[in-house]
Design a protein that fits this description.
With 315 residues, the chain is of the alpha/beta class. The chain is 47% helix and 14% strand. Helix 9 runs antiparallel to helix 10. The longest helix is centred in the last third of the chain and has 33 residues.
Length: 315
């Protein structure tokens, strides 16, 4: 098998068939006949999505359908798809046709220049202002915490070599963060600029809560926030000590100086706020460690179609 196309699906009954057919046309134009699709139903609320996926699986033996038992999120759905992909080259696409199959040849050509991982870079993202802002903030944070290259954009439309996939799926914990997994696996990465098309049907499933939850998964791949919290705590303690020393000296020089109740309250609130922030950050790490040790599943496959007998998606 040369190509595996992974598509996490969520309420995609109006677009998934067109996506598969357009991708097949692109492979035909490329002269490629060895390919498969791994369509992962991330517990779509409507039944039509799974029905459409099963119709495709019944029509095409090269279409695998992985039906998850609950909604595990896009990153974990991608991990499920990666576990079932068997191609020499792995392509990941969105289900909404905003990432168009016509750009696959450009990504593949770039990969063949000697790169291990190629991401699409969008000329202009067709997302709302709030989502674009959070994406930019997350990118800057990843540059600081994960040593993300400043000249590389990470998107959900990518192609990689099989050895990248083989290494990434070794991660079996519930908090999947694709950027972190890729950055700890490879550095031979490139971008290809493509068009990001407007959404044709429905609306994005990402709200503020889901975006924050996805972004927070970076904590599984760096301890830098804990170090920052420690530095903040040290500077706060130093500042408190210096301020107390200043008050004592000032009181000795001016015994009649009234004690500042307002300033005291402000200092207490600031330092307790910093303390609670640091405790919360530490608690986030401890909680995630507990859930990983507790073997919380990354994903659970309810049923798989057109798939050979496997255990956890592996031979």
């Amino acid at each position: 098998m040369k190509f595996s196309v992974i598509v996490p699906c969520y309420n995609s009954q109006d677009t998934i068939s067109e996506l598969v057919e357009l991708t097949r046309e692109v492979f035909g134009q490329m002269g490629e006949e060895e390919y498969e699709f791994v369509l992962v139903n991330d517990y779509s609320p409507n039944r039509e999505t799974l029905q459409e996926l099963l119709r495709l699986a019944g029509r095409y033996p090269f279409v695998k359908v992985i039906d998850l038992a609950k909604n595990f999120g896009q990153a974990n759905a991608q991990m499920a798809g990666l576990n079932f992909a068997e191609g020499e080259y792995i392509i990941n696409m969105d289900d909404d046709l905003q990432t168009h199959p016509s750009h696959i040849p450009a990504l593949y050509q770039k990969l063949e220049e000697g790169y291990d991982l190629v991401f699409a870079r969008y000329k202009k993202k067709q997302h709302n202002f709030f989502r674009n802002l959070l994406t930019r903030m997350g990118a800057k944070f990843d540059e600081m915490c994960l040593e993300r290259p400043k000249d590389i954009d990470f998107t959900s439309f990518f192609i990689c070599r099989k050895f990248i996939r083989d290494e990434v799926i070794k991660y079996t914990y519930p908090y999947s963060f694709m950027e972190g997994l890729f950055l700890r696996t490879a550095r031979n990465i490139a971008n290809v600029e493509v068009e990001h098309l407007p959404r044709q049907h429905g609306q994005s499933g990402y709200n503020l809560r889901k975006l924050v939850k996805l972004w927070s998964n970076f904590t599984n791949f760096t301890v830098l926030p804990l170090r920052i919290a420690g530095i903040i705590g040290f500077l706060s303690a130093l500042g408190g000590f210096l301020y107390a020393l200043y008050i004592v000296i000032k009181k000795l020089l001016d015994p009649g100086m009234p004690m500042g109740y307002a300033s005291l309250i402000c200092v207490v609130l600031i330092f307790f706020g910093i303390t609670l922030f640091c405790i919360g950050m530490l608690g986030e790490y401890v909680g995630r460690t507990f859930l990983c040790v507790n073997n919380s599943p990354q994903y659970v496959v309810r049923a798989a179609y057109n798939v050979s007998e496997k255990k956890d998606g592996k031979e």
